[in-house]
Amino acid sequence: MPVSRKTYIRRRFGVFGGLGIFLLAAFYLPVTLLAPLPAATATTVATAVPDNPAVELAWPGFGSSAIGAVGFPGVLASSGPTTPRTIASITKIVTSLVVLQKMPLSDGTDGPTITMTSADVELYYSFIARDGEVRPVWAGLSLTQRQLLEVVLIASANNYAQSMATWAFGSEDAFLSAAAAWLSEHGLNHTTLHDSTGMDPRNTSTTADLIALGKLAIADPTVSSIVAMKSVNLPYFGTVNNTNKLLGIDGVRGIKTGTLDEAGACLLFASDIEVDGHPVTIIGVVLGGPDHPTIDAAIRALLASAAKGFRELPLVTAGEVFYTYSTVWDQSARAVASKDESALVWAGTTVTRTATTASELREGHTGDTVGAVTFSVGGTTVSVPLDLDGTVADPGPWWRLTHPFG
C-alpha cells in the first residue's frame, strides 16, 4: 500500500530529528564536559606595609661622621660635610690592603722576612724631623711581613708604613700608582693618596668611602685580626700598644686612628653588637675631632644610639591574606602567606612590597603555591610563597552541562 505523503513527512522529520538530536548530543556533551573552565576571579586584599620608623642618633657636634654595617649597603646615616677631608693615618689601612693584595698572607703565616737597610734609617730620621710617629730602626733589623704590618697598624709608625710600601712595590711612587688603581677597583673614587703614611694632609677621603674602606678592612682576615689587638710583643721593641683606646669597649674591635694638625683627631672603627640573636658589625668613622678622648666619648654615645637603630622587623605572618579567588560556580579560596618572615633592618629604611599571583586559576588544592609576596628592604630582598587555603575544584558534569558558556 502506498505510504501517504503525511506519513512520509512525519517519518522524515523523525529520522532527521533523531539524527539532529544525536549530532547535537555528540557535539554538545564533549564540548561542555571537556571545555576549559573559566578562570577564577582574583581580588587583591589591601594589607599594610610594615612600619620602620627612623631612630635619632647621637652625632658628635664636630667634624664629619657616618655609620654603616657589614651586610648593609652603603652608608646608613651621616652627619656633617660629606666632601673629602684629610684622613691622616687612616691612610695606613689603604697601604696595608694594597700591600696585602700584592703580597697576601695565608691565615696563621708570618710571610717573608724583610731586612731593613740604611734607606729605612734615613726614613726614620726624616719622619722625626717632621714630628711624625716613628719606631726605631737600624740597618740589618729583620722583621716578618706580619710583624711589619703590626708596627704599621698598631703603633701607627710612619717610617715603617713607607718602608713596607717601598719593600712591596720598589718605591713610594710605584706604591701610589698601585694604590690609585686599587682605590678605583674598589669604587673608592673620592679617596686620594699622596703618600703611604698619612703625614701628607692631601690624603683625603669622604665618610662614605671610609665606611666602604672599613668594610674591606674587616673582611680581610690579616688586617682584621691585627687592628683588634690592644698590644703586641715584638722582638727588639717589646710591648707595642695600639693607638686605638676604644678597643674592647662597647664591642669595638678596630680599625684605625688618625691624627694630624690639618685632620684633627680621627677614628675609623668597627663594633660588634647583637640584635635579636643576629650578630651585627657596625662600621663608623669620625673625622675632624678636637682630640682623641673627646671623639672616643662621642663615638661611645653614637654607638649606643646606633645600636637601637637595628631591629628584627616582622614582614609577614603565616596565613596573612593577599588575594581572594572566586569562581562562577560559587567556590572560593584565598592566597595566603605560607610562613612568618622577618628581616634585620636599619631604622628608617624604606620597605616596599610586591605581591603576585597566578593570572589564571581554574583548579587548585589547599597548600598549592599560586604566587609570592616579595619585600625589598635596603639591599635585601625577601620572598614568601603564597599558598591556597582552600580548594578550587571542577564543578562537575551537571554544572558544565547547564552552563555551556561558563
How would you characterize the overall build of this protein?
The chain has helices spanning 5-34, 91-102, 118-129, 145-153, 158-169, 172-185, 207-219, 221-227, 292-307, 397-402, and strands at residues 41-44, 64-69, 77-79, 85-86, 113-115, 142-144, 204-205, 231-234, 238-241, 252-260, 264-275, 278-289, 310-316, 321-326, 332-337, 341-346, 351-357, 369-377, 380-388. It is of the alpha+beta class. The chain has three domains: 1-34; 38-51 and 314-402, Peptidoglycan synthesis regulatory factor (PBP3), Domain 2, CATH 2.60.410; 64-308, Beta-lactamase (3-Layer(aba) Sandwich). The strands form six sheets. A six-stranded antiparallel β-sheet has the order 1-14-15-19-18-17, with no helix packed on it. It has a five-stranded antiparallel β-sheet with strand order 3-2-12-11-10, sandwiched between helices. Strands 4-7 form a two-stranded antiparallel sheet. Mean pLDDT is 90; it is low at 19-25.
Largest sheet: 6 strands, antiparallel
**Fold-level CATH name of the largest domain:** Beta-lactamase
- Helix and strand content put the structural class at alpha+beta
Report the total helices.
Answer: 10
Physical arrangement of strands within the biggest beta sheet: 1-14-15-19-18-17
Average pLDDT metric:
90
CATH superfamily placement of the largest domain: DD-peptidase/beta-lactamase superfamily
Return the CATH architecture of the largest domain. 3-Layer(aba) Sandwich
Uncertain regions: pLDDT < 50 for 5+ in a row?
Answer: 19-25
